[in-house]
UniProtKB/TrEMBL annotation:
Coiled coil: none
The protein's annotated pathway: Purine metabolism; urate degradation; (S)-allantoin from urate: step 3/3
EC number: 4.1.1.97
Pfam families named in the record: OHCU_decarbox (PF09349)
Organism: Streptomyces angustmyceticus
GO molecular function: 2-oxo-4-hydroxy-4-carboxy-5-ureidoimidazoline decarboxylase activity
Name under which the protein is recorded: 2-oxo-4-hydroxy-4-carboxy-5-ureidoimidazoline decarboxylase
Length: 244
């Protein structure tokens, strides 16, 4: 059965109804302008002559960074753990036990570490709190250290340092070195970068990874534990950096 030209025009440009449905012609009704269909995906930009998708250069994505425990620094730099609100010592001492543990666990993932530090409140000054945090880190058992390192591996991991020329290759090397570190030592690589500029971070992490890959497992575990202590101390210090 043939289709009237008017019907074909209505099917293709107006309502896109199935071909088996016809609409009577209404000469007295002013037809609205055809409505362009809504696409679920954005249309491609017009291309120049010869600029086909196959001919366009491929943009390589920046590889994802390795999972490194990196201390929180100034705004815009690497923040491996969820943001910690600045409390001040007075507010920290006044928190409920549950809120205190939550705040402390954002600094170090060992539950026992957080409980020990929380148990000695109130602290008379920030130095006393930081000393207690150090002492609790020194006393971590093997299982508690494993727990803390596992929490570091679950933390959000932004890029180390700023992007720029040459950083693609550097981040590729960083990812490979980190994978080799985890294969050798069976735990995440952690390092505290307090005191370094943003443009120094990538080189510092790469250098530390390559050096520490040569360590024996027991030696490296002791180094990782001390880096974790430094990370926890720095995070806790920033937790107390404002407020009374």
């Amino acid at each position: 059965m043939s289709c009237h030209p008017h019907h074909r025009h209505t099917y293709h440009r107006f309502l896109r109804v199935p071909a088996s449905v016809r609409f009577p012609q209404l000469p007295s009704v002013v037809r609205p302008a055809p409505v362009e269909p809504i696409h679920s995906h954005p249309s491609e930009e017009p291309t120049l002559s010869g600029d086909t998708p196959a001919a366009r250069p491929t943009t390589l994505p920046m590889p994802q960074p390795p999972r490194c425990g990196i201390s929180a620094r100034a705004a815009g730099s690497a923040l491996p753990r969820p943001r910690r609100e600045e409390l001040g010592l007075a507010r920290f001492n006044a928190l409920t036990r549950g809120d205190t543990l939550t705040a402390l666990l954002s600094c170090c993932g060992s539950r026992r570490w957080a409980e020990r530090v929380a148990a000695h409140r109130p602290y008379p000054d920030p130095e006393s709190l930081l000393a207690a945090a150090d002492e609790a880190c020194y006393d971590l058992t093997a299982a508690e250290l494993n727990e803390a390192l596992a929490e570091e591996s679950l933390s959000p991991q932004p890029l180390v340092g700023a992007r720029g020329p040459g950083t693609l290759a550097a981040h590729t090397a960083l990812r490979a070195a980190h994978a080799e570190y985890e294969r050798r030592f069976r735990h995440v690589f952690v390092i505290c970068l307090d005191g370094y500029r943003d443009d120094e971070l990538l080189d510092q992490v790469l250098s530390a990874l390559r050096t520490r890959l040569g360590n024996e497992p027991d030696e490296e575990r002791a180094i990782a534990a001390d880096e974790l202590r430094r990370l926890a101390r720095g995070r806790l210090a920033r937790l107390l950096s404002t407020g009374p």
